[in-house]
Design goal:
Length: 373
């Protein structure tokens, strides 16, 4: 009721405010001269709803996301306009919430593509459309291969190879990431054992998503996979994001400790881009920090990036854990990282993501260093 009153205070008597249900409202603005008029009203609404609500002596803060479209550019009837405003609203949510987005045909195309990918993904595992590439990881001093990161790929029968940046968020949102994660871990561990049998005792790194961590028995998956493949726990590296560590610290800490007790190797992926905290590092006792490529990319020209990278390397040294830099694309970057004391690198300079056949060739032509203490 209070939201309704505030919305009414932001519009004219000739405009219409209605509630569709739940927390969704529709504002119909009549006789506007340009989209700028819509944006002006949207800003007023965002400001009005950002002020604290008092409900039965409780103080509540909320925010809203607004999707907007304009007649006749975006549609000629109410149903089409409502659907497109709704599309724009979800785009506003995906862009960080508490903002306003206008509908565009490009936006509609992206939404329809997402829906198609979500539907097609349900059969992709059954149809064996997913496959794994492996990006080698190197010791920075010796240039020896010390491990590989398993990267899932999707070869769609009609759309071709889909970028992970396009399908992973959809898989996480829909929960399909759990089945995909099972597939990646099993395939990667089986392949690691094949390399071990050939004499290449590599670490295999597998990304773990937030959804896998909180909605599935990750410990059981790891246990079953290691039992099934015969891979020793110390050779399986699970890459956790900082957002996982702060999502539910007590439960995550318990899970991390159980995984550590099994002997599983743990690293923090994209370190420095999320909720970096010394307290998290102390409590979770991971084995490795991965410096995000966004810092490595401009390390030679951006003083701030160089300072951040140096700080992460020194932090890892102080905690007596390993450190690897992602996205190393040039020899100059590698030399800079080596001078800073970084131990390991991965990136296009020494190794792009490779098929199993290509990885076998790389292992045959490059020395391999075992990194187990």
């Amino acid at each position: 009721m209070q939201v309704a009153r505030r919305l009414l205070s932001c519009v004219r008597d000739t405009d219409t405010v209605s509630r569709l249900g739940g927390d969704e409202f529709v504002v119909l603005l009549s006789y506007i001269s340009s989209p700028d008029n819509v944006l002006d009203v949207a800003k007023k609404i965002l400001k009005a709803l950002s002020e604290v609500f008092e409900i039965s002596e409780h103080f509540i803060s909320v925010s809203c996301s607004i999707g907007a479209c304009v007649y006749p550019t975006d549609g000629l009837d109410f149903d089409v306009l409502l659907q497109r405003a709704d599309t724009a609203m979800y785009e506003a949510k995906n862009d960080g919430r508490n903002n306003c987005k206008f509908f565009t045909e490009e936006m509609n195309f992206n939404v329809q593509r997402c829906l198609r990918l979500k539907n097609d993904m349900r059969n992709a595992l059954k149809n064996e459309e997913f496959y794994i590439e492996y990006q080698p990881q190197f010791d920075l001093v010796s240039r020896a291969i010390i491990g590989a990161e398993a990267l899932v790929r999707w070869r769609h029968p009609e759309l071709g190879v889909i970028s992970p940046g396009d399908f992973i968020p959809i898989a996480e949102e829909s929960g399909l990431i759990i089945d995909i994660g099972h597939y990646v871990m099993r395939q990667a561990c089986h392949q690691a054992m094949r390399w071990h049998d050939q004499g290449h005792r590599l670490h295999i790194a597998v990304n773990v998503s937030y959804v896998q961590f909180v909605r599935n028995n990750l410990l059981q998956l790891v246990t079953d996979t290691l039992d099934e493949t015969g891979l020793e726990a110390q050779y399986l590296e699970l890459e956790l994001t900082e957002s996982i560590l702060v999502s539910d610290p007590e439960n995550v800490l318990s899970m991390v400790q159980l995984l550590r007790n099994m002997g599983v190797f743990l690293s923090i992926d994209d370190f420095g881009t999320g909720y970096s905290s010394l307290s998290y590092l102390k409590r979770f006792s991971v084995h490795k920090l991965k410096i995000d490529q966004s810092f490595v990319r401009d390390i030679l020209v951006d003083k701030d990036d160089a300072i951040i990278v140096s700080a992460i390397i020194n932090l890892a040294k102080s905690l007596e854990i390993e450190c690897i830099a992602e996205g190393v694309e040039t020899e100059a970057q590698a030399n800079k990282l080596q001078a800073m004391g970084c131990q390991q690198i991965q990136g296009y300079w020494l190794g792009r993501p490779l098929s199993v056949v290509q990885m076998n060739e790389a292992l045959a032509n490059t020395k391999v260093m075992e990194q187990i203490e």
